[in-house]
Amino acid sequence: MLLVYACTAPSINIHTMETEQGRGMIFHPGCPVLRGEQKMKYSSRHPCHHSPLVRQLLNITGVASVTLFPGHVHIEKSDDPPSLDWTSIKPRILATLIHFFSTKLPPTTHHLAKCKHRHKDNGECVTFGYLDDVEAIIDDLINSR
């Protein structure tokens, strides 16, 4: 007897659009990226590590910064090495985004972070210490409502 097991991956279509300067690209995954947030910006030198999606994207050679918006992800490429162009970076970014959004995990877990942080008006996250146990409980209560 022959058993055949077929498993199909979820269909996720990500639409892309290059920015005018050519240094950035917008990726529309067709599902919400951030809920209730305006934007969150990360760079490779960034101290916040509460986004598994951003960690994966920043590990791609040539990615300089990632900005999460409610409906899309904006990625800027680095100029180092100067020979990198979108044709070499884009397939890895798309594979990362498709894999991540198919898992149904939240793109950011900043409400679970044990570091004190705030977001500037431009979306950049700034850390300034760690929560003690009482502060963590209060923070969890605030963010769960």
Automatic annotation (TrEMBL):
Pfam families: Nfu_N. Residues 14-104 form the Scaffold protein Nfu/NifU N-terminal domain. InterPro entries: Nfu/NifU_N, Nfu/NifU_N_sf. This is Scaffold protein Nfu/NifU N-terminal domain-containing protein.
